[in-house]
Design goal:
Blueprint (H helix, E strand, L loop, with lengths): L3 E2 L2 H5 L10 H14 L4 E7 L5 E6 L9 H4 L4 E2 L20 H7 L2 E7 L6 E7 L2 E8 L4 E7 L6 H5 L4 H18 L4 E6 L2 E5 L7 H15 L1 E2 L3 E2 L6 E6 L12 E5 L2 E3 L2 H10 L12 E6 L5 E2 L10 E2 L2 H19 L22 H9 L2 H4 L59 E6 L3 E6 L2 E6 H18 L5 E11 L2 H16 L3 E4 L4 E8 L7 H10 L10 H13 L9 H12 L14 E4 L1 H7 L4
Parallel strand pairs: 2-9, 14-16
Antiparallel strand pairs: 1-4, 2-3, 3-8, 5-6, 5-8, 6-7, 9-10, 11-13, 12-13, 13-16, 14-15, 17-18, 19-20, 20-21, 21-25, 22-24, 23-24
The structure holds adenosine-5'-diphosphate and magnesium ion.
Length: 612
């Protein structure tokens, strides 16, 4: 519909309030407009944390030449006509206020061409007044340039935080939308530096990695498609495995009908879904998107449109809790290739309808996991940074032997947070298959153990414990070893040197991508320093969500140090491996969040053989 002024009585019913609080609110309103305009490409650029300049360019339908001025009037919108329309809002915007508000506190240039017109329009507005208008040639779509935000509202300008803080608000907003709209190509540039670029290929992975970092991003589990019994509430998204948890709820993101919202109850539904699976006072990582009929949700609650009200809040709560629980439970118990996830202890969190069960059953954990390398697994409540590290105590005898024998000491800091549900049953080793898996028998059937993943888990906990107990001591090498790395990796490694030192690795830059390895902890002495450093330098995750560097490095070390697929193991070695796995705090996943063990239940076998 054309842009028009809302009738008085409709305007009066709209949740009113100031929407332009800070640069990020400008970005939010403009990007939402772009998405409402059907854009498949949205480019955001800022200078000076958004105070100097915010530019949002899209390839949406554009604004008809005759309506451009109108778009900047208060209560002018093309998205809403009558009060009744307020009940069924399907667009992100509807108040017709954003452009007017923004234009009143900045200098705006609007460049736009509607898809049905040949010529575009350039409109310049200063402090809310039209300053210039010309006809221009330009591609379809809209570009808004917001300069000198709050230039005429000194009080507001004074309250802006540092450029860095303002930028991070923008980052947080845009990265979330990039995950929620994987079919839209987003880019974000601050002061000429590209922060985010997604291709819009429909795969949310790029954006996930961008938001959560390589490690965490790749460990997330995808919520399998799931509808409630009435088929009206659709829950999708990604949740962390139980091995990943955080100190606050800040890593829980919610979208409702394509809109980022803050909702305490739904946040609680997600936290509840992890009940007993996470250590106390720890919170999950989740990106959950709920889709439901527009008439079942009221978005006209809050001026910034970040709160919603549901017609049936309980049903949405249940749907979210059930979907998240089923996803997590599917991963948390020993993964079975054929069985649907076990029902939650309280009985109501499991998927209720048969179709869902069947769909879930068809998904193996690997298929559901985003298939990319390392992931992250904070193990302890104790912050890593505070952990003691003894550096340069040559000759100190290693208390933890990082080979097949190694095992985390019982009662050490690592097992402290282990949820009771993750313990393994006693297993009897039968043999090895495909030089990759250990076959074992347990109380309920057959267990397949991924030898590499299991060993990674064992090493990871052993190394973490050793480090936290100050036992990862640097031991000088007889001869320093020279290692050469490609430029990018060398630069990355250089940033990691202080963290490496904390882990007992003395590495010295020697110029032109070359490093001298002077000391290594005894536990890692059997690894070739060149390979190890190359592995450590290969990752380049710069996650906005903070993970201790040492932790990331330890995971990379484990990947390199663990026995590989293809390695033939003696019975004794297998038994030791299984035994040591049983003694870890989180035996069911490798440090990257992938399963270490898969179970085939006796009942399954009986069914498969048609004996029941
Ligand atoms: P609202 O989004 O609530 O309608 P706004 O003030 O944000 O109000 O925008 C006013 C109108 O301007 C919109 O209804 C839409 O018709 C038009 N508009 C704004 N931005 C764009 C854009 N990027 N592409 C196409 N049309 C736009
Ligand atoms: Mg809008």
């Amino acid at each position: 519909m054309p842009i028009h002024l809302l009738p008085e009585e409709v305007a009066a019913r709209i949740a009113a309030g100031e929407v332009v609080e800070r640069p990020a609110s400008v970005v939010k309103e403009l990007v939402e407009n772009s998405l409402d305009a059907g854009a498949t490409r949205v480019e955001v650029e800022t200078r000076g944390g958004g105070r100097e300049l915010i530019r949002v360019r899209d390839n949406g339908v554009g604004i008809p030449a005759a309506e451009v001025e109108l778009a900047f009037r208060r209560h002018a919108t093309s998205k809403l006509e009558s009060a009744a329309d307020l009940e069924t809002i399907a667009t992100l915007g509807f108040r017709g206020e954003a452009l007017a508000s923004i234009a009143s506190v900045s200098r705006v240039t609007c460049l736009t061409r509607h898809t049905t017109e040949d010529a575009g329009t350039r409109l310049r507005i200063e402090g809310g007044e039209v300053a210039a208008r010309t006809t221009v040639g330009r591609p379809r779509g809209t570009e808004l340039l917001i300069e000198d935000l709050f230039y005429n509202v000194p009080a507001r300008r004074k309250f802006l935080q540092s450029e860095r803080t303002e930028r991070s608000h923008i980052d947080a907003f845009l990265t979330r939308y990039a995950i929620a709209y994987p079919h839209v190509a987003f880019s974000l540039v601050h002061d000429g530096r590209e922060i985010l670029a997604t291709s819009g290929n429909g795969n949310p992975q790029e954006a996930l990695l961008n938001v959560y970092g390589m490690d965490l991003g790749t460990s997330l589990l995808e919520i399998p498609e799931m509808l409630n019994a009435e088929q009206t509430i659709h829950v999708s998204g990604f949740v962390g495995p139980t091995s990943v948890h955080r100190a606050n709820r800040g890593y829980i993101t919610l979208f409702v009908n394509g809109r980022w919202v803050q909702d305490l109850r739904l946040t609680y539904a997600i936290i509840q879904a992890y009940h007993t699976l996470l250590p106390v006072k720890r919170f999950p990582v989740a990106f959950v998107s709920v889709t439901l009929p527009v008439e079942d949700v009221d978005v006209n609650v809050h001026p910034a449109k970040t709160e919603v009200r549901f017609r049936d809040g309980d049903a949405v709560f249940r749907a979210v809790q059930r979907a998240v629980r089923a996803t997590v439970m599917h991963e948390a118990p020993i993964a079975s290739p054929w069985e649907a996830p076990s029902p939650a202890p309280d009985g109501d969190a499991a998927p209720s309808d048969m179709a869902t069960r069947a769909r879930l059953a068809a998904l193996t954990p690997t298929a559901r996991q985003i298939a990319l390398p390392p992931a992250e697994t904070p193990l302890t409540e104790t912050p890593w940074h505070g952990a003691p590290a003894s550096v340069s105590t040559p000759g100190a005898s290693p208390a933890v032997d990082v080979d097949l024998e190694s095992q985390p000491p019982r009662g050490g800091p690592v097992p402290a947070t282990s949820p009771a549900t993750s313990a393994l049953p006693p297993l009897r080793v039968i043999g090895q298959a495909a030089t990759m898996f250990i076959i074992a028998e347990g109380p309920d059937g057959i267990y397949l153990i991924d030898q590499h993943a299991a060993h990674e888990r064992i090493l990871y906990e052993a190394l973490l414990t050793a480090w936290m107990q100050g036992q990862l001591a640097a031991q000088p090498l007889l001869e320093p070893v020279t290692v050469s790395l490609p430029v990018a990796e060398a630069a990355h490694l250089e940033e990691l040197l202080p963290a490496l030192l904390m882990l007992g690795m003395e590495v010295e830059p020697f110029g032109a991508g070359t490093f001298l390895v002077r000391a290594m902890p005894a536990q890692l002495a059997h690894l070739a320093p060149g390979d190890l450093l190359a592995d450590i330098a290969a990752g380049d995750e710069q996650s906005p969500i903070h993970t201790a560097l040492e932790e990331i490095i330890v995971r990379r070390i484990c990947k390199r140090a663990a026995i590989k697929a293809g390695q033939v193991l003696s019975r004794e070695e297998m038994e030791r491996l299984v035994h040591n796995l049983e003694r870890t705090a989180n035996p069911r996943t490798c440090p990257h969040g992938r399963p270490t063990i898969v179970q085939i239940g006796v009942e399954q076998l009986i069914r498969q053989f048609g004996r029941s």
